[in-house]
């Protein structure tokens, strides 16, 4: 009986795990350079954390289960709600703004396909405590700079859910969310049918006009004609800031984002190639959630990268780390271990034999894993305080004093 991994999950072998680690490192370093600090929350939470705002419908997409005491729990499908729960529980008296980032696995019961998994990773940030355009500007610039530093070829679209909210302010919550969901899914026929069936056909034209608006800041004037009493100053200030910082973006008022908690600016980034249909690599925006979890009403803004999708298209390679095998003749195993311990100061990979193989087989293993050097600890040389250093790439070897080994390898590698 061979046990396979569960549907929608993946294994990562060392090459891939290292590549992913390199990408993660770039994200972490840039987020930290903006003053964001890492937080970590539980892998599972109370199911209600995720249903409070998004409704029971979301349970279909969640790994929800009862534990042995009958508690309704869920594997986290995303990190924004958990981070805001943590904020309300632990950090609400800390000086604002708070800048948090996370890198963690998420779980969704989806139909797996390229770029869509049941276990996937998100890297994201939350900037808590400000509703200024400067907060939106900071997180957008941060997301943009990370994607640029990873050499990704992407487009960035920015919208504002406040426009549709204002347009539909007289529509009740339930219908409003239905409409937003259809806009999110780009189901315009369904939307027309729904508006007609609910006696809301009066909204069809203005919704259609608004969500078709895409382009530069000139579309703000068009939007103003559709929703004259909306205050566009936040969006205009944001656009000014983005231009000043030379961020390439499009305005797009059809972005509403799947989750219902966004209240203001929203944005999405798409990879231009390499991902097919699942090409959204980043989503974010400003939202209000903390009051739903028992805190005060604190404005926040953030984004999440689809880490797996980025890893799939990102071409940066981690720095290769050379391997050194410290081999030994019979009886010299523990001497080899001692020498290996000293060589580990080099921050390379220093391996020793754990199979009790003969020297020839140890060296053949060193070749098979592409080791750069072999240090051979043999009785005769060792008695003179020496070992053999073999350069496996050049096929040359020298007998060298043990005391000089570290310096020599340091020079060579
Ligand atoms: P969301 O929390 O839905 O806004 O997702 C944020 C980002 O996570 C998206 O832009 C995707 O790149 C990524 N993502 C969402 N769901 C999945 C999934 N099932 N598999 C892989 N990546 C995903």
Give a brief rundown of this model.
Helices cover 38% and strands 24% of the residues.
Give start-end ranges of low-pLDDT stretches: none
Oligomer: single chain
Tally of DSSP β-strands = 17
Radius of gyration: 28 Å
Profile the largest sheet: 9 strands, mixed
Shape: elongated
Distance between the termini: 46 Å
**SSE-based structural type:** alpha+beta
Helix amount: 25-40%
Q: Strand order of the main beta sheet, please? A: 1-5-6-12-11-10-7-9-8
Count up the helices. Answer: 15
Written overview of the protein:
The strands form 3 sheets. The chain has a 9-stranded mixed β-sheet. The protein has helices at residues 14-33, 48-54, 80-91, 133-149, 161-167, 173-184, 188-197, 204-212, 218-226, 233-244, 307-313, 333-343, 359-368, 379-383, 402-412; strands at residues 37-38, 44-46, 64-66, 72-75, 98-107, 119-128, 154-160, 214-215, 250-252, 262-271, 280-288, 299-306, 323-328, 349-352, 373-377, 386-391, 396-401. Helix 1 (14-33) runs antiparallel to helix 4 (133-149). It is 38% helix and 24% strand. With 413 residues, it is an alpha+beta fold. The structure holds adenosine monophosphate (AMP). The site of adenosine monophosphate has 17 residues, from strand 6, strand 11, strand 12 and helix 11.
């Amino acid at each position: 009986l061979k046990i396979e991994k569960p549907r929608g999950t993946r294994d990562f072998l060392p090459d891939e795990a290292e590549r992913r680690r390199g990408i993660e490192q770039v994200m972490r370093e840039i987020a930290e350079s903006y003053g964001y600090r890492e937080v970590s929350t539980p892998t599972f939470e109370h199911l209600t954390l995720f249903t409070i705002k998004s409704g029971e419908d979301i349970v279909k997409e969640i790994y929800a289960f009862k534990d042995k005491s009958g508690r309704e729990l869920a594997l986290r499908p995303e990190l924004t709600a958990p981070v805001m729960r943590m904020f309300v529980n632990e950090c609400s008296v800390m000086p604002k703004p708070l800048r948090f980032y996370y890198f963690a696995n998420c779980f969704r019961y989806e139909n797996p396909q390229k770029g869509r998994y049941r276990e996937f990773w998100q890297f994201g940030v939350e900037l808590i405590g400000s509703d200024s355009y400067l907060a939106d500007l900071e997180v957008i610039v941060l997301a943009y700079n990370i994607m640029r530093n990873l050499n990704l070829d992407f487009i960035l679209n920015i919208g504002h859910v406040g426009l549709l909210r204002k347009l539909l302010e007289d529509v009740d919550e339930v219908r409003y969310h239905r409409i937003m969901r259809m806009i999110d899914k780009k189901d315009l026929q369904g939307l027309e049918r729904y508006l007609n069936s609910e006696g809301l056909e009066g909204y069809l034209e203005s919704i259609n006009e608004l969500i078709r608006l895409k382009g530069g800041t000139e579309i703000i004037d068009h939007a103003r004609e559709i929703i004259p009493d909306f205050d566009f100053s936040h969006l205009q200030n944001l656009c000014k800031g983005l231009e000043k910082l030379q961020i390439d973006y499009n305005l797009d008022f059809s972005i509403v984002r799947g989750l219902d908690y966004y209240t203001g600016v929203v944005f999405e980034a798409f990879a231009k190639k390499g991902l097919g249909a699942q090409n959204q690599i980043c989503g974010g925006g400003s939202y209000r959630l903390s009051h739903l979890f028992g805190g005060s009403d604190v404005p926040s803004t953030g984004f999440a990268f689809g880490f797996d999708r980025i890893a799939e298209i990102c071409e940066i390679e981690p720095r290769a780390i050379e391997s050194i095998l410290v081999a030994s003749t019979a009886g010299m195993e523990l001497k080899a271990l001692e020498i290996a311990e000293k060589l580990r100061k080099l921050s390379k990979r220093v391996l020793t034999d754990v199979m009790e193989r003969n020297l020839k087989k140890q060296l053949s293993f060193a070749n098979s894993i592409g080791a750069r050097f072999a240090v051979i600890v043999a009785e005769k040389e060792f008695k003179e305080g020496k070992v053999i250093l073999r350069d496996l790439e050049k096929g040359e070897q020298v007998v060298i004093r043990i005391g000089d080994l570290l310096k020599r390898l340091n020079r060579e590698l």
